[in-house]
Amino acid sequence: MSQWDRATLEALDRADPLAAFRDQFQLPAGLIYLDGNSLGALPRRTLARVEETVTQAWGEGLITSWLGAEWITAPRRVGDKIARLLGAEPGEVIVADSTSVNLFKAITAALSLRPERSVILSETGNFPTDLYMMQGIAAFSAGRVRAEAVCEDAVLDRLRDDVAVLLLTQVHYKTGAVRDMAEVTRRAHQAGALVVWDLSHSAGAIPLDLNEADADFAVGCGYKFLNGGPGAPAYLFAARRHQAQAMPVLSGWMGHAAPFAFEDGYRAAEGIERFLCGTPPILGMTALECGVDLLAEADMAAIRAKSLQLGRLFMDLMDEHCGGFGFRLVSPREDARRGSHVSYAHPQGYGIMQALKERGVIGDFRDPDVLRFGLTPLYLRHVDMLDAVMAIRAVCETRGWDDPRWAVRAAVT
Ligand SMILES: Cc1ncc(COP(=O)(O)O)c(C=O)c1O
After folding, report:
1. Is 372 a catalytic residue?
2. Taking the model in full, what pTM does it have?
3. DSSP 8-state symbol, 216
4. In a mutational test of the pocket of ligand 1, which residue from 100, 129, 201, 288 has the highest number of ligand atoms less than 8 Å from its CB?
5. Which residues of 368-382 are buried (b: 16+ CB within 10 A; e: fewer)?
6. For this structure, is 5 an active site residue?
7. Residues 100-133: pLDDT tens digits?
8. Quick one: which H or E segment has residue 80?
9. Is 224 known to be catalytic?
10. How far is the CA of 222 from the centre of ligand 1 (A)?
11. How many angstroms does the Cα of residue 159 sit away from the middle of ligand 1?
12. Exposure check for the chain: N or C terminus, fewer CB within 10 A?
């Protein structure tokens, strides 16, 4: 008899302090959505708010809504709300652009604080955009800056006196492994480097305390655990102590000290607003604010506890029901080292994921062979773990991956 039978899992769902949040999301009936770490689900309140922004604020208010509907202050207002999730102070987080663009801004700002040093250091296997952005900055610098990626275990030893910026993702996008932010930051500072953290798979999923960790810069996505919608604007954190000296290279007019003074010369805004660049995308910002507001109503400790429990459950159920099918766990089993998704490698990973989608279980696939299952405590139930694992088992028993339709990979996996 399994430790995790349906009755036990249903009892866990009844006792779940976050259970009521599920109803706040619009989820297709019968679907088990294990991809909220890639694109979060739609909060019901977002529909009405976006409609109101379009029909009232835009349709009726037109340009007066920049002030009347407080559009102009949205990057800072939503940034302050996200700051609470990151362990940052009001005025240390701004919402703008994409994570990729914010990486550019944060890395170049950190470089401007370490002019005598030349290396941007990261780890191989980091999320590609992080590596690509640092490579692009190095190429543009015409020899002043070098981008270097070393393997995960060698990062801390590579912190020599030429390293200006260490760029790491706190929760790894593929494995879900968590880096110790306070310890890594301490080691980097000891070596005289600054750190840029990518929190895309952390914010809204695990408790964060950027200021406790003495963090320098951080960036992250709005469309994952923050449930801000496809292509939602991203956020950027700059510790207050760095703001006056950190010079924005993307010196757009919205980051100017007085945008509507229309001066010819660039003067950076005093505070976090200097990391704005162009006009904020208000429709995306409106949806993001709804997701962030909803998250703020939940207790982050309860989110973390449930996320870990769902992860343990998923792994136990995989051991029990799919043990003989060739899956290899690539996420850490240990709670303290695991974020909010669980990944398995399998040689037929791509086909298995496509077959699973046809059975109403959505996760995603990351090259070359990794199946990712995102665990979002606000809208997943304990019984979903059992149903998902039984669907994986059914795909394996029927060789569901063995379908000519999966021979060519889709543009999005
Ligand atoms: C760790 C990490 N960084 C960055 C990104 C993407 O950034 P952008 O919003 O610029 O596409 C992702 C997307 O999945 C990610 O997982």
Report:
1. yes
2. 0.97
3. -
4. 129
5. ebbbbbbbbbbbbbb
6. no
7. 999 999 999 999 999 999 999 999 999 999 999 9
8. helix 74-86
9. yes
10. 10
11. 25
12. N
